[in-house]
Amino acid sequence: MKKKFYLGITAALFVAALFSYSSVSPVGKTNSPLDGNSCTQCHQGSTISNQDNWISSNIPASGYIAGETYTITASGNHSSAVKFGFEITAENETAKQGTFVITNATETQFAFGDNNFVSHTSDGNTPIDGVKTWTFDWIAPAAGTGDLTFYAAFNSANGNGQNTGDIIFSSELAVTEDVSSKIEENSNLKISITPNPTSEKIILKSDLTIQDIKLIDFSGKLISNFSNVNSNSKEIRVESLSKGIYFLIIKGEGFQKTEKVIVK
Description:
The protein is 10% helix and 46% strand. By secondary structure, it is mainly beta. It has two domains: 2-177, Sandwich (Immunoglobulin-like), CATH 2.60.40.4060; 188-263, Immunoglobulins (Immunoglobulin-like), CATH 2.60.40. Strands 1, 2, 5, 7, 8, 10 and 11 form a seven-stranded mixed beta sheet that branches. Strands 12, 13, 14, 15, 16 and 17 form a six-stranded antiparallel beta sheet that branches. A four-stranded antiparallel beta sheet has the order 3-4-9-6, with no helix packed on it. Strand 13 and strand 14 (222-226) form a beta hairpin. The longest helix is centred in the N-terminal third of the chain and has 19 residues, at 2-20. The radius of gyration is 22 Å and the shape is elongated.
């Protein structure tokens, strides 16, 4: 009797898990090299097939600029899809890169709260004529990160409430870092940051008017965003930050510069 009872609980949990994925995907299912898994780990169906142009962006051909915000679009297309799910990440050979920003919380979210992955919601998984598109933002990582790739897995589900008969696709988008433009923009700009290293605050001074400042950590995660500075100086408190290396992305009219800050 107990054995049947335990089997019933197991089956119920399995079904609950299946339905929960219609509202968000599990973390690490993008088919990227660092993740090593995709939707096929849970969904039985066709093998993964790579699709061109299912991931797109407004990152120019010259590459991304550190700290800049870009719009990323993921779009699945399969005529028999009743439901469409997805999960996307960005990484280089060693780590996840950049910071995703949810711009449409109705249809997209971080996969189980992990901001290295964007996924669908329960209100964002219904295709129209087999097509489903999601958009969100991505803040480019620190200068010197170099080339990276967006990886995504898509699940074209048949809507039978089971994990069988689905079709899993994958797609990639490789981007480069725009190093040349960054050097050109920074060449005539003088900026001082004192004290550095610091444990309490820094005073940033520039010979040109500063408009915006982003403070990001070593992994490229946005820590603070100071907009409409419109001054040649800015005080930034850092006593609440963990010890380590951070970067300031400093922008003004006609210039952008990245500076390293050490919090001790």
